[in-house]
Input
Amino acid sequence: MLESKYQVLTGPEGYLPPAAASKGVTLPDEGLALVEGTIVPEKDAIEKIAEKILQAKNPFFFPGPLLLWDWKEGVAQKAALVKKLAEVAGIKIIPMPDYRPKYPMINPDIEINPNHPNLTIWHNKIDLCLFIGVHCHYANVALKIIRGGTDCYTIALCGEAGHEDAMISLRDVGLAQLEALIEAVTRLKGVANS
Amino acid sequence: MSKNIFRISPGFEDIMPDEYKELVESGPYGKDLGVSDMGTFKELLEEHPLCAGCGLALSLRLILASLPNPEDTVIVGSTGCSALAFPQVAVHNIHSLFGNQNAVASGLKRALKLRFPDKVKDVVVIAGDGATADIGLDMVMQSWFRSESITTIMLDNEAYANTGGQESGMTQQGAVMNMAPKGKNFPKISLPEIAREAGCSYVASISPAQPKRLEKMVRRAILTAREVGPSYVQIFSPCPTNYKFKPQETVSRIKQHQKEGHYQTKEYINTAAQEYLASIEEGKKNE
Output
């Protein structure tokens, strides 16, 4: 697989950062993940995500409609694991229930304005965010805006093929991957506390 | 019909903003509510960026409250004032290029039929007069010629209001506007007649000054499009900004126009649609 020299790193990268795909960043194949522009095995990425979460001062989940609404079989179990991961890792949650613009009434304490995710990040001083259950097109746009205007570290826990515009992108995230993440966070916390 | 899409994932009930909890608990989805119930349920459009007294905003609220099946409806809009409100509507909606709305809606309806063969999915075009009667007239009429199963609703504010006030095909003859200072030279297009001749099974013109009739017409139009053929509703929605009247005068202005005969409430139903609607409305009476 071709690997790009371009790396998706913490910003701010400028007013209009390029889409990572346009700079040659490609999505990982099944069983692999993307970490700052490099393709790595899924299990390595899970360890890296756990490390990053534990290192962060103010990590947040941004769950999207695919997770927040109990719209098909399996979502409730996934939602329960995300809640568990949030509790175990001390991650706060700001929901993105749909993609309607919130003008001018956005309250960045209780929800994210999908059209201006940077406002929510600035307001809450978020240094790491995890996207989960956000439709591809909005995740790509939001991740690019965050990279462009903030120094927030972005992680995409994607149910499909992943997102080039996140600093870490895990693909095909289901129950097994979330359980592995919970296990990794618990283990690393234990090591840190021992 | 499954309403699971409007159930919050367990554990996230407390995290969801109140606005969404309210939509789930007291929204109109799956409850068969109508305009008479307005004020008792969470409306699908609340905040919007349109001008004070905007006839489109009033019409849009009434249309949304009239949808027979909001949870399985997709609205296709087009460029114009109304397009500014659509992103804030709690119904799936698509913004098309200016004038393309009926072509987009045709494709969408066909795709939904293939994707959800066992479900009723309503596709409703809601666009202004510029998109419907001028720039998009080709696509609108071709969709009627092809008998696409979609409803077309025109929000008729008799102007290109969003771009500063040019005359449209729907502007009344003689009307003077910001960018039509000499007054319009040609009469208003009679689109209901064109719709009828182009193959619509149900055609109506109405205004938000008659909310119950508007509701009945919107419902009839959508039900007709489901089972019989294309339908068209024209809704007079005057623009206080371009026509320079006070925001609180919108409804009285509509009534005045109707009284003077400039805008008439009309309804045309072809035989097939009449039979279908009669069977439904009769069934409802007997419930």
Notes: The longest helix of chain B spans residues 211-227.
